[in-house]
Hints:
single chain, alpha/beta, Rossmann fold, 6-stranded parallel β-sheet
Amino acid sequence: xxxxxxxxxxxxxxxxxxxxxxxxxxxxxxxxxxxxxxxxxxxxxxxxxxxxxxxxxxxxxxxxxxxxxxxxxxxxxxxxxxxxxxxxxxxxxxxxxxxxxxxxxxxxxxxxxxxxxxxxxxxxxxxxxxxxxxxxxxxxxxxxxxxxxxxxxxxxxxxxxxxxxxxxxxxxxxxxxxxxxxxxxxxxxxxxxxxxxxxxxxxxxxxxxxxxxxxxxxxxxx
Length: 222
């Protein structure tokens, strides 16, 4: 859809499975013993929605004054980091938002597995690995309804979507998840479709095999 290849090719195919989570994540999987916080973990860019995060979280705090958001990652541009910090001060969120910067892979997995929800207001993605990793860790996701999210995660109950740029709708979904008890949260991650999805995308070996099959077919038909 992004490339526009359909205009020029009679037949296009996409790799399946095209991505996988590290199997080591499963040892951190946690669907019920959650702490009362949310997490944002991605490239800290405007395209990933980092400057929308303060507005989303201000709406959350208006209903849940003690709601906490943990952010991990590195800002790619200093001016974006400066603007983000200004927004936290302007919206009086310094107490509710904790920015950890870069953390190790293991520590980030632990942080995400204990969170109730990943807040993910990304505008551009091909196959968002952080969403897949969040599901593997047993953490619910709220994201914009962009093509990548809609096409890949449409059947996964633990991925909730809202219209793109609708920070109010995203905040509302996040509030609902933060209010959920452990049993309701666990049910989002333990249904048959979600478990089947995780099985499909749980091995890089399967991604390699799919790529080999596609290359072989291309060679035979060329």
